[in-house]
Every structure is written in C-alpha cells, then in structure tokens.
Amino acid sequence: MTATMLSGKDLAAAIRTETATRAAALAEAGTPVTLAVVVATADESSAWYVRSIAKAAEKVGITCDIVRLGADATPDAIRATLAGLSADDAVHGIILQTPLPAGAALEDLAGAIAFGKDVDGANPLSLGRLAAGLPAFAPATAEAVVTILDHYGIELTGRHVAVVGRSTVVGKPVAHLLLDRHATVTICHSRTKDLAAITSTADVIVAAVGRAGLITAEHIAPGAVVIDVGTNPTPDGGLAGDVDPESATPTAGALTPVPGGVGPVTTALLLSHTVQAATSPNT
To answer: Sheet containing 160-164: which strands, arranged edge to edge?
Structure first.
C-alpha cells in the first residue's frame, strides 16, 4: 500500500478564484476589501508567512496592510492598535501575527479584535461560539483540515478521528468542527499515555502537535487518512511535518504533504474569510 497524496494546491487555487470574484464585485460596489496584519515580532519565519499572505491577498484583489509595531511593543500598544483597527470601517479583517513579545499573550490580546473582523478565529469569543455551534470564523488552519477532507470526499459521519494536539489554534477548534460533522473525536496531547494505542484505532488522524516526525507507521491503522498540520523548520531552511512520511506512506491510505497540503488552503481560507467579513460585517 502507498498513501495517496492529498495536495491542497488545487483546492486552494479554487478558493482563491472564488474569493477574487467576490472581492472584485465588492470593489466595484464601492467596498474595496482590506485585511490588516498586526506584527510585533522580528521572527524571520513569521516575516516570511506575512509576506506570503500579502502576496496572496494582492493576487485576489484584497489590500493587505501590514502594521509593524516592532518586537519591543508593549501589550497595551498592541491592544490599542487592535482596538483602533476594529473601529476602522475601512478594515474588514484583522490578524494578530505570532509570536508576540515577552509579556504579551495571544489569548489576552485577541479579545481586542472585533468579533466580525476576527478572520482567523483568535478572539476567545469566536472559539466559544464555535464550541456552541454558533456562527463564527474558525481558525483558518482548523477549517482547512475539514475543507481538505470534504474536497477529497472523505466521510466523517460515524468515523473515529484522533486529533493529536490541543491548541486553541488547531486542536480544540478542529475537534469542534469534526464533532459538528458527526465524527467521534479523541483529543490526544503531550501527556497522553501510549499515543500509538489510540491513534492506531482511528479512521482519520489530524497531527497538529508541532513535533517533527512524531507520527510514524506504528501510530497509523492500515488505510487511515492522515492530515499533517505540522510546519516545523528544518536546518536546511525547509519544513517538516508532524508525520514521518517515509514511515507513514506505506501504511496510510492517504496523507497530506508538507509543504503543499494544509498550508495553501489555510492562506486561501483567511482571504475568503476576509471577503466574507466585508460582505457580512456581523458574521
């Protein structure tokens, strides 16, 4: 058995095409779409990601304003900036880029992002509404997981999904999204005993713990679908997923590549969310 590669590139391209059409219609109607990205870090990998968002936004007709506060920005300065952008009618989506300066916590600051402009689901209000089954923007990475599964026609109803990772960015929100799709979800994490004993019973594994190569053949049931959310930097400047592809490929039925899997879909969904926010400000 050799795993089918679930590329996200064609799916991301389709999402971008639809987003560009909707953005053009809004601009023609007098509402040019604007996304603001607040950056308070000198981290190079973060800078690369922000540049990629800006480039992708430009291609679909969305203005991307990068608000650089510097790596020494105080929590008060970041909060005030987010509040100001939230009150600006010309701004439709807001992202607070991580990492943040020492003493600044995303969970404390993201509450300053207006709910209707919280296109990456960072505000705790968004996560709470998601858990309650109410309309909200899900974190784009979490939504990308389910979007890829849907795109490839992978059934979720009644299936056992093991989510490895419990962050508020991926693990917890993707679990809620999967529950909404009638999957039976097990959340695993760094203190889970005998991880392989749990994941090897799953029909689908979502690996989102941030440890390169953690998931190997022993963690995977023959034919299981594996969604690799990991983006771990390698010494040569590349990216490695949370799944060891050499070990996993002979056992898994399907696997997302890193890069080229979840990442492109995540960026495309961020832009789609921004257009949605411009269309329906109250989400």
So the answer is: 4-5, 254-255, 225-228, 204-207, 160-164, 184-188
